[in-house]
Structures are given as structure tokens and as C-alpha cells.
Amino acid sequence: MPIVYDGVPKEVEILFEGQKLVFKVRNLSWSAMNQILSKCSSFTQDKKAIFDLDLYYREALIAMVVGTPTTPPFNGGPLTHALLVSLSPEFGSKLEELVPLPGATGQSPFVSGQP
To answer: Are 109 and 44 in contact (CB under 8 A)?
Structure first.
């Protein structure tokens, strides 16, 4: 495993309801993962930690997906918060599989080729 992050995207196919959708996805660098984790974490007045898992998955997907299918609703454009919240739970769970668990190494097994 290299010391320096290369950021090279890989094509990942998602099969959904008979369609094969191809996304270009890159793993996150150590720093990018930490920035997303920090953005999704907060503390209450009484110092209890809060972690927004929904925001974590949306932020990670926006950072990781650098190419989308040319078919609706993606139309080859970037992922946005508005687009992600409009997806069905069934398709959203497919995209969620691309994202490493919070606090993991930043490597998605689907992007690294080791599902």
C-alpha cells in the first residue's frame, strides 16, 4: 500500500432493477476523510457527542463520486445534497455501500476492488 494517496478514480457498476449504472469513484485521502468526519460531528451543551450519519454518507458520496451515469436522474452531473435526498431508499443503500464506515481507513472495498 503506498504512503501517498493517488486519488485515481475507478469505475464501479451498480446493478439496480435490471439497469447497470456506472459511476467513477475515488477513495478518500486520510485528510479528506477526517474533514468529513469533523463536519458531521458536534457536541451538545452538556458535552455529549453527536454524529450525523446521514450527513456523513452524503458528504462522503459527494467527495468520492467524480463521474455519474448520463441517464436520469444523474445526467452525468455531480452528486448534490438535493439529488441524494431525492433517491429511493433502495438505491440509496446501493450507493451507501461505496462509502467506508465512519472511522475506517477511507478505503471502500468496492472502489479498491476487494468486495
So the answer is: no
DSSP state of 61: H
C-alpha dihedral over 90, 92, 97, 98, to 10 degrees?
A: 150
CA separation for the pair 61, 48 (Å, rounded): 27
What is the tens place of the pLDDT at every residue in 13-56? Answer: 999 999 999 999 998 888 999 999 999 999 999 999 999 999 99
Closest CA to 23 of 110, 115, 114: 110
d(C-alpha 26, C-alpha 85), whole Å: 21
Q: Where are the domains of the chain?
A: 10-108
